[in-house]
Amino acid sequence: MIARAGAMDSDGTRAALAELCRIYWYPLYWFTRSRGLSQHDAEDLIQAFFEDLLRRNAIARADVARGRFRTFLLTSLRNFHSHQRGRAAALKRGGGSELISLDAAGAAEKRFQHEPATESSPEKLFDQKWALSLLDTTLNRLCREYTAAAKQAWFDELKVVLWGGRGEVSYAEIAGRLSTTEGAVKVAVHRLRARFKECLRDEIAQTVPNPAEIDDEMRHLFAAVCL
After folding, report:
1. How many CA atoms lie within 13 A of 48 on its CB side?
2. How far is CA 8 from CA 12, 53, 149, 202, in A?
3. What is the residue extent of each domain of the chain?
4. What is the pTM of this model?
5. How far apart are CA 172 and CA 153, in angstroms?
6. 67/46 Cα distance (integer angstroms)
7. SS3 call for 203
8. Residues of the chain with pLDDT under 50
9. Which of 6, 37, 60, 227 could bridge 42 with an S-S bond, Cβ 3.0-4.6 Å?
10. Which spans in the chain are helix H?
11. pLDDT tens digits, residue range 113-157?
């Protein structure tokens, strides 16, 4: 995905960059809001930042030897923001080509307002927001798969126990609501977890240059979630 976003083909470049924007939008938005920017200034900055990456083909110059893509993005955003402040200029709403809808941007603000207070560094929390965003992307992908297979009701019930703990919901209760057996629910949960892991690895593979790095990135992801 990163390679496509850095390619010169306009259609493929834009599609890949739009996907990266969707994945990294909230982590970057959270970072700018946590550093004191207002909602609208943060929205404008992130929109302008991704548009600038596209216009300058900056992703093609990302050096994988110097770190992860998320680190490249965060460093680039800081530099872009500093440059924008120095010029006292910003790409205002509607002034450029939109890579993410303003409705989605507004949803990010609602999510930001519910974030708990913390003393962790913005950089560590940026990694956490990236990890949660990737998990959410994977979960949405699974939801689409189950919906396409006419199993939306199954997904809605099984996602509650996806992470390994049953919590307050037993397999027997789920089986009752789905009009099936507890054994069938256990099998379905096992398959969902296996598919989730497979999809997550695939999502991570889109943002690392070498398949050998997937396991290390997964370990970092789960460590970030547990901050």
Report:
1. 20
2. 8, 12, 36, 24
3. 1-115, 119-227
4. 0.64
5. 16
6. 21
7. helix
8. 88-96
9. 37
10. 2-5, 10-34, 39-56, 69-87, 102-113, 122-148, 152-158, 171-178, 182-205, 214-225
11. 766 666 667 778 888 888 888 898 899 999 999 999 999 999 999
| Closest of 72, 71, 46 to residue 59, by C-alpha | 72
Lookup: tokens for 91: 């790409």
Extract the tokens encoding 22.
């969707």
CA 86 to chain centroid? 30
Residue 170 tokens read as: 């037993």
Residue-wise pLDDT tens digits, 90-110:
444 444 455 555 555 566 677
Amino acid identity at 209: P
Q: What per-residue string of b and e applies to 53-75 under the rule 16 or more CB within 10 Å gives b?
A: bbeeebbeebeeeeebbbebbbe
Q: Which amino acid, 89?
A: A
Helix axes 182-205, 171-178, angle to 10 degrees: 100
